[in-house]
Amino acid sequence: MKRVLRILLMAVVVVLAAAAALGAYVYGATERLMARTYTIPTPPRTTVRTDTASVARGQYLAEHVALCVECHGDDLGGATIYDNVAMGRITSPNLTTGQGGATYSDDDFARAILHGVKRDGRSVILMPSIEYQFTEADFGALVAYVRSKPPVNRVQPTPSVGPVARALAVFAPFPLAPASVIDHAKVRFSSAPDASDPAATGAYLAAGGGCAGCHREKFQGGGGPAPGAGNITPVGIGDWNEQQFITAIREHRRPNGTIIDDAMPRTYGQMTDADLMAIFAFLRTVPAAGEKTPNQKQGPVAARPAAN
User: Looking at the DSSP assignment, which residues form a beta bridge with residue 117?
Assistant: First the structure.
């Protein structure tokens, strides 16, 4: 009996030692990842126009396409994205000139948004810079809108990265430090899509909206928060029509009646009909990949009775 207990004790010690070693490796690897600095001497240059139309376009992009407000807050004064033991305290910076914010130059914005690099040369944290693609005009409009916001006095708490976020950064495609996976030599503004080609416009909007961040590079789904984003290739939505797609984005309900999780931002549903139709046109051109998700495979769900 003593021999069995001794073996069990040794097994527990070995497991704990292995866990400690793994934890130390993950911690060290992510600390090095976040401490790494990048030199971006000549980020893409743009002209920032402050006319009403440009600011309005920038607001549309920030609120409904690139979804800057989802992380930085409606006032762009910064917000707390995660605050729990697993993920840590992940915050977004105050983009205004109020207390706790800063004055960003055109180059500062280009480095952060397109290269994922902060003013101190280190990577931004969890910002989907690797996904973003903008024309020069749209990028300038976005910057103009940010600068149009009133100063917000908000000092963010010191961020920290939790063990789950660190482990995901090492063992999964989790964008903890996006600058580390961007080919900085190839960062360019996008060409303006052909206005007569809805699919081209849709491809541009899907890129600017960072759809591939959750739906993955081939749009077969599975990325993002559990249970994972749906398959939006013809495998997953091939039998949907245009109106069903728009309804799904706006009302978070698939044609079969199942509910789309709120991990899919509802603000996408505030895009114009024309832009949503363009995205649908683009998705119809995407090669079929992957499998339907369980919700997509489900048969029609009976509508809930109206409340009295």
Answer: 123
- Residue 89, strand partner residues: 83, 160
The torsion region of residue 126 among left (phi > 0), alpha (psi -120 to 50) and beta comes to left
Q: In sequence order, what are the residues at sequence separation of 6 or more whose Cβ sits closer than 8 angstroms to the Cβ of residue 299?
A: 256
Identify the three-state secondary structure at position 277. Answer: helix
Q: Which of 31, 235, 35, 61 is nearest to 145 (CA)?
A: 61
Rounded to whole angstroms, the Cα distance separating 216 from 31 reads 26
Record the tokens describing residue 292, joined without a space: 């339907």
At 214 the pLDDT is 87
Between CA 20 and CA 253 the distance in angstroms is 44
Peptide bond into 227 cis (omega under 30): yes
Task: Quote the Cα angle for 144-146-148, to 5°.
Answer: 70
Evaluate if residue 205 carries a pLDDT over 90.
yes
pLDDT at 199: 96
- Share above pLDDT 90 across residues of the chain, in percent, rounded to a whole number: 64
Length of the chain: 308
3-class DSSP state of 190: strand
Q: Which residues have C-beta within 8 Å of that of residue 177, sequence separation ≥ 6?
A: 33, 34, 36, 116, 122, 123, 124, 125, 169
Distance CA 86, CA 45 (A): 39
The token pair that represents 109 in the structure block = 């914005």
- The pTM (predicted TM-score) of the whole model is 0.87
Mean pLDDT of all residues in 280-292: 93
Residue with tokens 């996904």: 131
The C-alpha atoms of residue 261 and residue 276 are separated, in whole angstroms, by 19
Residue 183, number of CB atoms within 10 A of its CB? 7
Q: Looking at the DSSP assignment, which residues form a beta bridge with residue 259? A: 253
Among residues 181, 206, 168, which one has the least CA distance to residue 86?
168
Which residues make Cβ contacts (< 8 Å) with residue 271, sequence separation at least 6? 64, 65, 205, 249, 279
